[in-house]
Design goal:
single chain; alpha/beta; Spore Coat Polysaccharide Biosynthesis Protein SpsA, Chain A; 8 helices; globular
Length: about 260
């Protein structure tokens, strides 16, 4: 457990997983195993190991399966609760459901289909605690930033985010890696964020609104692997990458808590 600011944890796990084809017919994406352990459980354990004991999971598609697997969290010595997102209206709307749970407490937020090595959760936590950063986002580098969320920096400070920019003109390969620490100020920004072109309330747009109002958000660029289960190809690659990590290390891989 890590000392420092007390955080709560939020995991967005409501998506349908349409791009996963038959893999999610019977299971929600977050319960798909990465080397025999569901991605969601790996995330929960990483939260626990940075000192987070209270976690809210936003569920939707096959919510019962997630709630049945995780129960109330006591098997991990944690407190887990749930809110179901009944209307699929974007990641911003999903995050907004956590307002009553977090109240005045900063919180770590991630997606249930994205997993980082444990050291990255710790690094984001440490950065948040090191000074008054306001908020923190983990970033990774993408070869093709047009499929991600481009992030622009001034030193360590994030100054702009752009969803799926043109690759040729983006001018950066830094991408939102899907792990954040926010303060409750985020919910006010979500409330003032208009719908995107897709007709949804996007978390990225709420972040950009906050940045445009000079809210402080710092970046941690990961040096490990981002394990993604958003598509069948990414899911296969994530399993292969972690198997290689097992085979190359004489100790437990850093992703295992």
């Amino acid at each position: 457990m890590t000392s420092g600011t007390s955080l709560k944890g939020v995991i967005l796990a409501a998506g349908f997983g349409k791009r996963m084809a038959r893999l999610t017919q019977n299971y929600p994406k977050p319960l798909l195993p990465i080397v025999n352990i569901p991605a969601l459980e790996r995330i929960i354990l990483s939260y626990r190991d940075v000192g987070i004991t209270d976690v809210l999971i936003i569920t939707g598609y096959k919510a019962e399966a997630i709630e049945s697997y995780c129960h109330d969290g006591r098997q991990w010595e944690m407190n887990i609760s749930y809110i179901r997102q009944t209307e699929v209206s974007g990641t911003g709307s999903a995050a907004r459901l956590a307002a009553e749970f977090t109240r005045d407490t900063p919180f770590m937020l991630t997606y249930g289909d994205i997993l980082l090595e444990h050291k990255e959760y710790q690094a984001v936590f440490n950065l948040f605690n090191s000074s008054d950063h306001g908020a923190v986002s983990a970033l990774n580098r993408l070869e093709d930033i047009s499929i991600g969320s481009a992030v622009y920096l001034d030193g360590q400070r994030i100054i702009r985010v752009v969803e799926k920019p043109q690759r040729e003109t983006a001018g950066t390969n830094l991408n939102n890696a899907g792990l954040f620490i926010f303060t409750p100020d985020l919910f006010d920004a979500i409330d003032r964020t208009p719908k995107s072109k897709r007709g949804e309330y996007e978390l990225t747009e709420a972040i950009q609104l906050s940045l445009s109002e000079n809210k402080n958000m710092s970046a941690h660029i990961i040096d490990g692997v981002q394990y993604d289960i958003g598509t069948p190809e990414a899911y296969l690659e994530s399993n292969i990458s972690l198997i290689h990590l097992f085979s190359e290390s004489t100790d437990s891989p850093d992703i295992i808590s």
